[in-house]
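Hmm, what's this shape?
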Amino acid sequence: MPVEEVNPPDAYKILSEDMTARLVDVRSAAEWGFVGGPDLSALRRDVIRIEWQSWPGMSPNPAFVGALMDEMGSDPPILLFLCRSGGRSKAAARAVTRAYAARDVAVRCINVAEGFEGDLDSDGHRGVLGGWKARGLAWRQT
């Protein structure tokens, strides 16, 4: 199933204009703790954090779809999915789209294509080429 994709500034715009839209950060707990994450406090919103895969082995989380659907209910809002660089979040968005479609519920799942840290630069570093952080959007580390 196709999933829409937007860049981080467009994702933030959707979140700021539609108060029902939700940001789902599918990175691992290690990433949330060591790298940081989006800060939506200016919008008076929280980020939903559910691991798509768990570190260190990056084993799939079989409870991901069910946990998110339980939280969203039968009439889900717009869901924006975010990971490090856009790959895991796209897979998660597809899985959620399929699960709701199996229940005959249409849901708008959008992948934040550049993710939180973006692609690797020529020196092998993230956080410079695209991504939530490099685009200057609010974020914080713990």
